[in-house]
């Protein structure tokens, strides 16, 4: 069953969440602990983020600083397979275009196909930490280029134009969208143009960047529908659990913090109080979304497992 079918099967708001692979050298048990804590809410799928290598300069034995590439987290291929094998829950690895060559992407698709992991989330990825060599590598500049490669792979066309036997089960995929506009979009009209392009080229559904003001999500969905975008648009939600996220989240994710939430967080003396405020706000936010019959709610779970458990306990 494809992820898309979970949104249409029962009419119930689907529960899903996103995981971050453990740092290199740490146990996958961290992943399992999070799933064990949240599986009671019947997650329809679990996303796994993907991370490119990063450059560091280290001093060698001769005292010369040399640039080396370091992968701080393992890839999502093995983790996705482990989740599906252990829990029988649909795993959806992120496939990102920047920081990975087209050839690396092709081999990831081959491995995932062999493992029976056939749902993907296609993203461009964060370009801010790419070095000069990574920016010049043979990768897709945008997620729509990555989308074309996956579409071709489904038809048995390799990235170099050669042909092979198409996979028995083609990949299906979702893509990202931005109710408050991607930081590089000049305006919302351009945002809608590229969002529609993703859907026209085959995206089954869209998952939003995190937001804290439901009115912006509702307005975005209305504009998408008016533009002829009919696929499910899944709200991406994160309960605030640290006091400094009041300034960190707008900086990193370009997500506005509503004035009422900002005032409540400013009054917090510590992270424990901020976590309570975050759970209360997120619970109310999710209840309103469910009253509007959203097809699913996708939670960004990084460091927020307990908060998500409290929210999910209140709404499911």
Strand content: 15-25%
Could you say how many structural domains there are in total?
1
Low-pLDDT runs of 5+ residues are none
- Give the strand line-up of the largest sheet: 9-8-7-6-5-2-1-11-10
The CATH architecture classification is Alpha-Beta Barrel
Calculate the mean pLDDT score and round it.
88
What do we call the CATH topology? TIM Barrel
Order of helices and strands: HEHEEEHEHEHHEHEHEEHHHEH
Estimated structural class: alpha/beta
> Quick one: overall form?
globular
User: Residue share in helices?
Assistant: 40-55%
Distance between the termini: 22 Å
Verbal overview:
This protein is α/β, with parallel strands linked by helices. The chain has one domain (3-55, 62-315): TIM Barrel, CATH 3.20.20. It has helices at 3-8, 29-38, 76-87, 102-115, 132-136, 143-154, 188-200, 214-226, 245-253, 259-267, 271-291, 305-315; strands spanning 14-19, 45-48, 54-59, 65-70, 90-96, 119-123, 172-177, 205-208, 233-234, 236-237, 296-300. It has a nine-stranded parallel beta sheet. Strands 3-4 form a two-stranded antiparallel ribbon. β3 (54-59) and β4 (65-70) form a beta hairpin. α11 runs parallel beside α12 (305-315). The longest helix has 21 residues, at 271-291. It is globular and about 60 Å long. The chain starts with a helix and ends with a helix.
Give the helices and strands, then pairings.
Layout: H1 3-8, E1 14-19, H2 29-38, E2 45-48, E3 54-59, E4 65-70, H3 76-87, E5 90-96, H4 102-115, E6 119-123, H5 132-136, H6 143-154, E7 172-177, H7 188-200, E8 205-208, H8 214-226, E9 233-234, E10 236-237, H9 245-253, H10 259-267, H11 271-291, E11 296-300, H12 305-315
